[in-house]
């Protein structure tokens, strides 16, 4: 499923957002609403959409809650960042507080001078409630700039 925390935070802060989604706007919760301004890829495959988002960004933040080994989508995103030589930051929200995570995101974006940030992470079915935490992290990270 599509992690909506990134675009939800962007919309609340008035930050331009977008990205790619699978053909048919498929997610684990049904079709992705058009308000997220995502472009459909020519493929239904998660890997193709994820590759596009990694390549189109200056860096990726992956939010998990637990072990990345238990989250194949997050592990794939992490590996695609490495393969495509893109900066990647992994934040474990079961360890890092919202405040710590926001500081890490701010430092990561500044260090790499990222203009387009790819936000990825756990599926809601794997980590219930993670989307709301991601919104809190991103709002704190970017509202102080």
Structural class: alpha/beta
Give, in spatial order, the strands making up the sheet with the most strands: 4-3-5
**Residues in helices, as a percent range:** 40-55%
Number of strands: 5
**What best-fitting shape do the alpha-carbon axes yield?**
globular
Order of helices and strands, N to C? HEEHEHEHEH
Query: Span between N and C termini?
Result: 30 Å
How many H/I helical runs? Answer: 5
Largest sheet: 3 strands, parallel
Overall pLDDT score: 81
Describe this structure in words.
It is a single chain. By secondary structure, the chain is an alpha/beta fold. Helices cover 41% and strands 14% of the residues. The chain has helices at residues 5-13, 46-55, 72-83, 98-112, 130-143, and strands at residues 20-21, 39-40, 59-64, 88-92, 117-121. The strands form two sheets. Strands 4-3-5 form a three-stranded parallel β-sheet, sandwiched between helices. The longest helix is centred in the C-terminal third of the chain and has 15 residues, at 98-112. The N and C termini lie far apart (30 Å). The model has no long low-confidence stretch (mean pLDDT 81).
